[in-house]
Amino acid sequence: MLPFGDHAGFEPLGVATYHYLNGLKLQIEQLVAVCSIFNFKSLQLFY
Question: Structure pTM?
Answer without folding.
Answer: 0.53
